[in-house]
Predict the structure.
Amino acid sequence: MASSSRSALTLQQAVAQAPVLARLSELAAESNARLAVILPALPPALRPLIRCGAPDGEAWTLLVPHNAAAAKLRQLTPTLTAALAAAGHPVTSIRIKVARRQP
């Protein structure tokens, strides 16, 4: 078995070396941070249903699997926006989309 002169990159190294991947990683981290802020304000039954999209400036998209979850989330939007602002995430708009989960 011959040894390779190339060394394997870790995922973090690959992301750091590719600007597009680095930006996607930053967006994912920001979205997860926002989700962590709003989860305590959500009813427990709604928490596992929410998936978050990438932040888009001061807008953010949340995905839910059905209309009932979307309706409840829309009712909570002012509370969620206030929680995000208090945590230093200046979100002025939360978009809610119904997206069926893939099996």
Remarks:
- The chain has a mean pLDDT of 86.
